[in-house]
Every structure is written in structure tokens, then in C-alpha cells.
Amino acid sequence: MKFFSLSKTRYKAVICLVLIAALLLTCACGKKEKETVKELKVGTENITGNFNPFYAEKEGDKAVVSQIFPSLQVKSANNKFINRCGSISYEYVEGEKVKYTVTIRNDIYFSDGTNATIDDLLFWYYFISDATYDGVYKDFYLNDIEGIKEYYYDSQNYQSDIQRFNGNKKLISEYIKENYADGISVSEISGIKRVDNYTCTILFNSRNINAVSEINAFLVSRLFYGKDYVKGSADKVKEITSSAMGCGKYFLSSFGKGEAELLTNKFCYGDLPAFRKVTFIDLAAKKKDPVESAKSGYVDIVGVTADNKTVTSLNGDKIKYVTAAEDCYCSIFFNSRSLDTEVRKMLQSACDVYSVIESEYGGNYTKVFMPLSVRFEESPDVDEAYYSQLLTAPLLSQYIKTLSAYYAGDKQDLEYKILEKFGENIQQYGVKLNITVTDAKDLNAAIKNGKAQVWIGYTDDGDTCDKYEYYHTGGSMNFTGLSDAGVDDLTERVRKATGFSDKKDLMQQLMKAVMETAVEMPLFQQRMLIIYNTSIFDQNCVNLMTSYDTIYSCISELY
Which fold has domain 86-238? Predict the structure, then answer.
């Protein structure tokens, strides 16, 4: 049993309990009187005790953080934003510029009883724009917000200054350090304006499909986290890990021995949740099997990868499950640094590996024939392979005799078996596949230097249908080294698209263009089993099954 699909998270943060809200997000069912006081035990992993909302990286820590620090909006499974603690609207101004208006509710209170205001949200934006901040949102300054780079570099003349460094990161770092050391010159981000106690505006200089996701921030207490902070001293905030001050439905009561206990925040907005105590349990740390933990009642709900063995074992009155699509998919990748386009196309035509996948997952997966964005309607609906095996594969041996494949994992993993099957396929055309098992660090090095001609991995869906980072020449996750003018143009146009029809048309063009480059052969999208205890949840609630992003968005609504 691979707990929470750990083996497949090579290039993405591990997502535990993904899409459990497909089971439970609408569980409130219009119910205002939540008369039963109960405890909810949630199975997760990697709870390290870092509950700082700016720095929490492990999934268990982030699960806890999400209950203490609500975001302005939550996302449904198809990525539609729903207001929770605030709203975000926009208008076009001055050509390509877009002004976003962010409003928070006036009935939000932190667990110490103080009212949350727009200043707390502004503190979030300013802190993650500080060059000394090195947490998970450290790239926020790259957004095209008016004045944000001047603030980040602490110089109104940063553009001309850094040009002379020719991209040398060390020199740029020293430049920033000197700017901060000699006194703060830029104390405001000109594009972020406070309007009143509950409203601010954010001006983007250009259209960006990711903008709403970028500014959909957590509400944190500036008085608690910012009491010793001034620009240039992010370490003062980073030190705050084991205590937390948020305005969510819950507050942190205790942490220890792989468990984080949360209790109801009596100052929370709206109704008190039915589960007055929520305990997150790190099953990996406790060496507990997630399925058996659910069966025994050790946890009330947990998510695991759907496979034949697990599905067969989950038949009973007290334990039930539903399935939900994971927000990632598996592909075989081809390195453009060491394989030319025609060879890559031939190799793709030999990628029929589904017999191996079916032996592991049965019917608990979906075939994928184009790079996809699993939560977005803009993605093309394709039901057949892009390349025909009979068309090109027999020509392989005229171009190559051996092929090097890399995998970061174990030989027992399904991914390794898929590569073996791929090797059998090309062997019949006179090409030998050599598979190297390594770790993620060495895999990345082998990809960059071209030694890894082929590898297998998973692509995270992300927050929008924008695929710039994966396929643009300058994309941060463009591991295949793809550089194609047509693809670059389409990724840039998708980012600026406004209407649904425009995005859908551009995405169809983009995915076809990517397949023509033959750097990625999508294979399958897995499914999750969301296992739950029927004695804990109201079955009317369970049967609604409305799809939302994660359980983190809906724990306070369960009953």
C-alpha cells in the first residue's frame, strides 16, 4: 500500500486527501443547527510542527494551517473560486492593465478576539514581497504588480542596476543585501492600495490568468506575526512555528507525538462547526497503515490511491468509500536535449503500456492521451492516442539502437514496471532500453545533461489551465528542454485570454502543438479512494458528494 500516492510525487508537492471534498464539501446541507458535538480524526502524514502559514511545506502541516488560516476564496474541483472570507473582482484599466478589488468580510475575528481587517491581508502581501522571505510564496514578487519589484529590490532603479549583473544570482543577491542594509528606500508597493478597513486594490500591469490565485491569500494576524518584523527581517517571522494566530473555524490546541489537536475558535465567523475537535494524525510517523486505520476506527477519514487490492478489501457496513480523480497525471517524458523530434514521435507510438497499469489498478484509472488539466473545462477531450504504433515505431532501429531511461524510485513501483513494458515494446523494433534507478536529485541532473533520454513522472494540475511553466522555453518546470516558438506564443496567449471560448480554443491549439513536439506521452490519471467511517458522518451529508478541491476546504462543514 502506497500511502497517499507517495511514489508518484516526483515534481509536485505531495497532495494528501486530495478531492475528499468530492465526498463531503456540501455536507452542511443547509443545516444551521449542528446539535452533535463530535471529534473528527483525520489521517494524514508529515506533520512536523511547522504551523507558520508563510513557511509550512509538508502536507500534514499545511492541513493544520488550512483550518487555522482561511483563505479569501476556496476552489471547487473545476477550479471555480467561491467566496469564503472575502471576494475578488476585477476591471480592465489603461489598456492591458487590470485592477483587482479585494474585500474581506467584516465579521472575521482572530482566536484572540481581535477583528481582522484589510491591514492583516496587506501584511501578507508585503511580507511575501520581502526579498529576505524564503518560504513557499517567495516568487510572489514575479507577478506583474505595479511597484512590486521596486519594493523587492528596494530600489526605484532596479532594472538598470541589475542589468549589469547579466543574471548572476550571487551578484543580484549581494545587491539586494546591500540595498536592505543601508536603510529601506522603498517602503510601499505602489500598485497595492488600501481603500478602507476591509478593502484594497491591486493593480497588475498586464493580464494574467493566474492573478486571482496569486492574490487569494490567507488571513493572518499582523499584530501576532509582525510584532518584531520590519522589511528585511523575515527571519523574525520564520521563527514562529509551534504557535499560531488565525481566524479560521479552529485554533491549534496542542501538538505532539505525530498528532495536532484543533479546537473550535469561539470567535469564528458563521456557525460553530459540528466537530468541535479535529485531530490530524500522522499515520506514517506512527507506522500505521491508512486502510487498516480507517477500518479499525483509528481515523475517521483517509485518502489512498485506488488499486485492486484495496478496493476488494473495503466492503462493509461501517466502512465505505467513494472515488475521486486525482489532480495529477502520469506521463513518459522524452528529453529534447538528446533525442530529435522524429525519434521522439516514433518512441511515443510504442507507448502502449496499459496492460501493466490495469494489472495494478483495474478500472481505477483513466487513460490520458494529451497533456491535460484535469479540473478545467478548457482542456481538449481526446479519446485516442495521438501517434499510431503502426505508422512510425518500426522505423526506430534506423535511428537508435539503445535508449537510456531513468526512474527515481524502486523497482517494485508501478512506474518502473511501466518503463519495463515500454522497453519490451521497443525491443521488438531493435532498440534496447537501459533503465537506471536513482533518486530525485540525480534524476534532475541526468535530465539537464541529457543522459536521461526518457523518464517517467507526474504532472501536477496546478491552479489554472495555464501551462506556461511546463511548456514555455522559460518555464520553471519545463524539464524536457522544450523550446518551440509556436508553443511559446500559445502559452503566452493562454495567460492573457479572458473569455472561456478563447481559452478553450487556445488550449486545444496548445495541446496539439505540444503533442507535435513529442516531448511528453501522457498515460493515465489515477483515482483516489476516500475511505470514511459511516458511524461518524451523517449519511445524508455523505451522499451529496459535491466535488471540491480538498478536504481542507470543508472540514468545518462536516457533520
Answer: Dipeptide-binding Protein; domain 1 (3.90.76)
